Amino acid sequence: MRYFPIFLDTKNTECLIVGAGEVAARKLELMLKSEAHVTVVAPEVCNTVHSLAGHTQVSLHQRPFQEQDLDDKAMVFVATSDTSLNQQIQQLARQRGVMVNVVDNTPLCQFITPSIIDRSPIVIALSSGGVAPVLLRYLRQKLESVIPANISRLGAFSEKFREKVKQSLSGVIARRYFWEDVLDGDIAEFIEKGQNQKAEQQFLAALDAAKINQKPEGQVYLVGAGPGDPDLLTFRALRLMQKADVVVYDRLVSPQILELVRRDAEKIYVGKVKSHHTLPQNDINNLIVQKAKEGNRVVRLKGGDPFIFGRGGEEIQTLIAAGIGFQVVPGITAATGASTYAGIPLTHRDHAQSVVFATGHLKDNTIDLNWPALAHANQTLVFYMGLTGLAIICEKLVEHGLSADTPIALVQQATLPEQKVVTGTLTTILANPATATIAPPTLIIVGSVVALHSSMNWYSDNPQSPEAVHR
């Protein structure tokens, strides 16, 4: 992030605009939406600037720029047609520590003005750093269409009662829960429709009720984060992630998904790798109970689906014993994510009429599975957490009846740009040099459906690779 987004308090701020053509006029119009005092300096002035100069916030000086024009200024917009003059003013401003924007010359800008959606007091700013203005306009258009025009009424209402709520409810969490209930319910509807009297009556009644019980009841949400690609999150998962007070997440939650969590939520990493656990499972169970008892909304964020090799059942049993309320949000499990993005259908009428999910890492650290039940033709096997036991898996499946030529695929970091797929057979996969480059998290898919990968692989964007896209 080269350009850090920041909102400046423009009250009593002095701003300078050098230039008075139509480009400068656009900057003047923008600054007049703020509370800043604006000084405009230029020897020639266009009609638009002349008409705006009558505003009490504007001082117009029709003359060439002078260095003392920068005195006491907090920011300056340079919008002349003289390139050398623009560069000179930029250098003078930087020397004085004045923030400077040279219009349409990003390399000379210390700051840039974003695209703005103004629903004051709610203001949304968007920027592409000057590299994608058309995309920026497209995004602004989309946002303008989904953000209600009357959202400003909600902002003004919140401002009016903010201090009263702060005095009435002592805890930060209690205040947050209260405001969320207001904004999600009928009170917000009344405000948006302009029915302020009815809204205030219901608001004050709700606040009186909240005073009686200020200790919010904690809740735990077991949320499936899916296989990695944030586009595969459910709407409900995203909504809860953005309302959470505490997020307890594991190693399989991708950084891209973690970026979507509410910024000021407490994030606690409890990831596990083979033979090394940041926290043992019992400690994780106790942690989410403790955080919920403190009145927090706790999101237990798990890669894939909480109920498919995610220990969700164990954690829920602990919550039930502790009397903690909970909800479960399913996610796309790694098996379906990996198979789909690798172009390997788990079932196919010509290949497999059943599919079995198995773990390659049992509770006692063995791979003592029901091999006779697994070693059947016309079914697909998906092994979670099985990479370190790959040799044993291949050996046992052949030993119990599967053909040595049965196709097998290793799918690493499924659904992410770094996804890698290595294929072979039960007897050749270990000798494939590419197998040595595969690391967790990796799923193993076994069955004749793997043979379809070469023709159905749609995800890879490298046409020279073995995982090339086929269209």
UniProtKB/TrEMBL annotation:
Gene3D superfamilies per record: Cobalt-precorrin-4 Transmethylase, Domain 1, Methyltransferase, Cobalt-precorrin-4 Transmethylase, Domain 2, NAD(P)-binding Rossmann-like Domain, Sirohaem synthase, dimerisation domain, Siroheme synthase, domain 2
EC number: 2.1.1.107, 1.3.1.76, 4.99.1.4
MF (Gene Ontology): NAD binding; precorrin-2 dehydrogenase activity; sirohydrochlorin ferrochelatase activity; uroporphyrin-III C-methyltransferase activity
Sirohaem synthase dimerisation domain mapped to chain residues: 151-207
Known catalytic reactions: siroheme + 2 H(+) = sirohydrochlorin + Fe(2+); precorrin-2 + NAD(+) = sirohydrochlorin + NADH + 2 H(+); uroporphyrinogen III + 2 S-adenosyl-L-methionine = precorrin-2 + 2 S-adenosyl-L-homocysteine + H(+)
Binding site for NAD(+): 22-23, 43-44
Gene Ontology biological process terms, A to Z: cobalamin biosynthetic process; methylation; siroheme biosynthetic process
Recorded metabolic or biological pathway in which this protein acts: Cofactor biosynthesis; adenosylcobalamin biosynthesis; precorrin-2 from uroporphyrinogen III: step 1/1; Cofactor biosynthesis; adenosylcobalamin biosynthesis; sirohydrochlorin from precorrin-2: step 1/1; Porphyrin-containing compound metabolism; siroheme biosynthesis; precorrin-2 from uroporphyrinogen III: step 1/1; Porphyrin-containing compound metabolism; siroheme biosynthesis; siroheme from sirohydrochlorin: step 1/1
Residues modified to Phosphoserine: 128
CDD domains cross-referenced by the UniProt entry: SUMT
Domain Tetrapyrrole methylase: 220-429
Keyword presence, Transcription: no
Superkingdom field: Bacteria
Alphabetical list of PROSITE patterns matching this protein: SUMT_2
Start and end residues of each stretch annotated as Precorrin-2 dehydrogenase / sirohydrochlorin ferrochelatase: 1-203
Ligand binding (S-adenosyl-L-methionine): 227, 303-305, 308, 333-334, 385, 414
Record: active site: 250 (proton acceptor), 272 (proton donor)
Keywords: Cobalamin biosynthesis, Lyase, Methyltransferase, Multifunctional enzyme, NAD, Oxidoreductase, Phosphoprotein, Porphyrin biosynthesis, S-adenosyl-L-methionine, Transferase
Location of region: Uroporphyrinogen-III C-methyltransferase: 218-471
Role noted for this protein: Then it catalyzes the NAD-dependent ring dehydrogenation of precorrin-2 to yield sirohydrochlorin. Finally, it catalyzes the ferrochelation of sirohydrochlorin to yield siroheme.
Stored HAMAP family: Siroheme_synth
PANTHER family per the UniProt record, alphabetical: SIROHEME SYNTHASE, SIROHEME SYNTHASE-RELATED
Protein family: In the C-terminal section; belongs to the precorrin methyltransferase family.
Protein name per UniProt: Siroheme synthase
Naturally occurring in which organism (per UniProt): Alteromonas pelagimontana
